[in-house]
Amino acid sequence: MKKIKILTFILLVFIACKDKMSSNSDKETSNSHTMTQKNEFGIILHGGAGTILKEHMSDSLELAYKEVLEMAIKTGYTILENGGTSLEAIAETIKIMEDSPLFNAGKGAVFTHHETNELDASVMVGNTQDAGAISGVTRVKNPIDLAIKVMTDSPHVMLSGEGAEQFASEQGIELVDPSYFFTENRFRSLQHIKDSERTALDHDGKTSSVTPEIKDSKFGTVGAAALDKHGNLAAGTSTGGMTNKRWNRIGDAPIIGAGTYANNATCAVSSTGWGEFFIRAVVAHDISALMEYKGLSLEEAAREVIQKKVPALGGDGGIVAIDKNGHMVAEFNTAGMYRASMNAQGEITIGIYKE
Amino acid sequence: MKKIKILTFILLVFIACKDKMSSNSDKETSNSHTMTQKNEFGIILHGGAGTILKEHMSDSLELAYKEVLEMAIKTGYTILENGGTSLEAIAETIKIMEDSPLFNAGKGAVFTHHETNELDASVMVGNTQDAGAISGVTRVKNPIDLAIKVMTDSPHVMLSGEGAEQFASEQGIELVDPSYFFTENRFRSLQHIKDSERTALDHDGKTSSVTPEIKDSKFGTVGAAALDKHGNLAAGTSTGGMTNKRWNRIGDAPIIGAGTYANNATCAVSSTGWGEFFIRAVVAHDISALMEYKGLSLEEAAREVIQKKVPALGGDGGIVAIDKNGHMVAEFNTAGMYRASMNAQGEITIGIYKE
């Protein structure tokens, strides 16, 4: 009897060890073993991150923003609900915001130093990892449409400047007069920034633009990420860039891996922030890599990148993302980020400030 | 006595289990615990990957290539040996190849559809993860110099087109007449490709350019990666893009995370290949992420990306890279890749074809 008790005890110790070892490896591979629930779908958007404070917002302006955010998210959602693709959903959602003068994309885009508007956009789909991107266009009414066209109807991923517009013209993408993008508000912002710069300029090319107001003028982008009923992810981003932009500067919005990334194995991400830092940190791809290679959840990966890695470099901003199971995340390290989401249960969230 | 034997046995089983569990976690973190050997340093370069076959190469041309590769690698090496920075080393190495008409960068750059030369370049340093990039310049003699200037003397990471050249002019970067870049060989290649395209064109925008010769015209970039005696990594890439380029297309060379990436925690990487696939696969950053998050060695990570992931998407090309301990890797899935390396022991390798 004693021998049996002892042997049983040895056996229990052994089993306890083995369980601990296999649960460690299970945790690592759990992401790849998780069932993709085909009935899950959803869409999340952002309209830009930055120093967005309630005390600076009139009630009517806040209402105006919320109305467009709601319209945008519902437009994309309806497409998904009806079995449409995540690509189509994010495109239509983004176009609502491009067409609204409230957001720094399409109409309402900020002005460059030379008082022009230069627009960038990118898109990526999670099944084939196909992508499209454009930078520095001046007459394309809906940049996201052109980015998609580059992806689907050209042998390339990224086109720029006049060449991108030539392609747009060949492909029947709607072109407008550059004055279409003008808004009084953004034009005044440019003059204001130019005045601030004249006082802030300290002849150090690298730090001449770090006052809060000038820093905030870098933010402002729209984007969306979605999962459709077919289990496919997609993400897109569109922007007018930064106020007082010089030298045909390109930010993160049209850079695959920085501003936009999608991979059915992990997630779809759209970024908004201080573009230079998002490029250096390869933000969107880094979130996916943390999930794929380190087994982090989308929440953990987004937090790691947005709350630790980007600030460690000195940058600000945020992302919205959705994983292959429909979990959605809005993560930002600024005072606010315009955002909205809708899940398969039809639950809608709309936000502006940090909660 | 019997009880002692049994208890000893139980204890041994327990210790055996515990050792197995901790050796698993040791393996995962072993990369971060590896000592950075400060006396290790090295530099590796590439001059482009593609269908480079011995039967197509005359002895004299092969010798000409090897001479420039040797001069380039030794130039960078000497800087490192004398305690110079990895940034300076890769810059001087790359400039040797930019100035040589043999490589598709700087002089010797391929021609666009419109018979112009549009140059791209990027650079990144591993300590601060600062980066600089330019696309679509037409008069900058050494694009890598301008990319570095953007990094060190502007508040931005990426500039493009005329704006980038305006910045170059303001910064005293050497500008030349566009005709400087002309070489008879590359001009003839353009005419040849145009003729092939006329026969190969099947009105499908996406597949019109996949004959081997046309595919190969996409390759050709120069780049380098180095580790200096201070333990800092740096990488850079420079290119004339693809023959018969249209629409101001941007490839992977100026895209941080795709063509160039450096991070003192992992490695420095420079890519050369079918740019569109390298952008979609975020190649350079993916190699670093596999090392950092999955604990792969540089060799394993490079092989995973270049031999599996990029081909899985349908792409070709290669990379050169060096890790924080000075291990160097040249990985490519094409018939050849111009390459050279020199390590701390002064051992030099020069290669063209697959071994």
Q: In words, what does this structure look like?
A:
The structure is a homodimer of 355-residue chains. With 355 residues, chain A is an alpha+beta fold. Chain A has two domains: 1-37; 42-353, (Glycosyl)asparaginase (Glutamine Phosphoribosylpyrophosphate, subunit 1, domain 1, 4-Layer Sandwich), CATH 3.60.20.30. Chain A is 41% helix and 22% strand. The first copy, chain A, is built from ten helices and 13 strands. Chain A has helices spanning 2-33, 59-81, 86-99, 143-153, 161-171, 184-200, 212-216, 275-280, 283-294, 298-313, and strands at 42-50, 119-125, 131-137, 158-160, 222-227, 233-239, 249-250, 260-262, 267-273, 317-323, 328-332, 336-343, 348-353. In chain A, the strands form two sheets. In chain A, strands 4-3-2-6-5-1-12-13 form an eight-stranded mixed sheet. Chain A has a four-stranded antiparallel sheet with strand order 8-9-10-11. In chain A, a hairpin with a 4-residue loop joins β10 and β11 (328-332). Chain A is globular, with a radius of gyration of 22 Å. The N and C termini of chain A lie far apart (63 Å). The relative contact order of chain A is 0.17. Residues 22-37 and 201-209 of chain A have low confidence and may be disordered. Chains A and B meet through α1, β3, β4, α5 and β7 of A and α1, β3, β4, α5 and β7 of B.
Compute the gyration radius of chain A: what is it?
22 Å
Q: Indicate the CATH topology of the largest domain in chain A.
A: Glutamine Phosphoribosylpyrophosphate, subunit 1, domain 1
How many runs of DSSP E, i.e. beta strands of chain A? 13
Briefly, what CATH class of the largest domain in chain A? Answer: Alpha Beta
The CATH homologous superfamily of the largest domain in chain A is named (Glycosyl)asparaginase
Oligomerization state: homodimer
Distance between the terminal alpha carbons of chain A, to the nearest Å? 63 Å
Q: What general form of chain A does the structure show? A: globular
Strand content of chain A: 15-25%
Largest binding interface between chains: A-B, 63 and 63 residues
CATH architecture call of the largest domain in chain A: 4-Layer Sandwich
Sequence stretches where pLDDT stays below 50 over 5 or more residues of chain A: 22-37, 201-209
Order of helices and strands of chain A: HEHHEEHEHHHEEEEEHHHEEEE
Q: Helix/strand-derived class of chain A?
A: alpha+beta
Provide the spatial order of strands within the biggest beta sheet of chain A: 4-3-2-6-5-1-12-13
Number of helices of chain A: 10
- What's the domain count of chain A? 2
- Average per-residue pLDDT of chain A, rounded, comes to 89
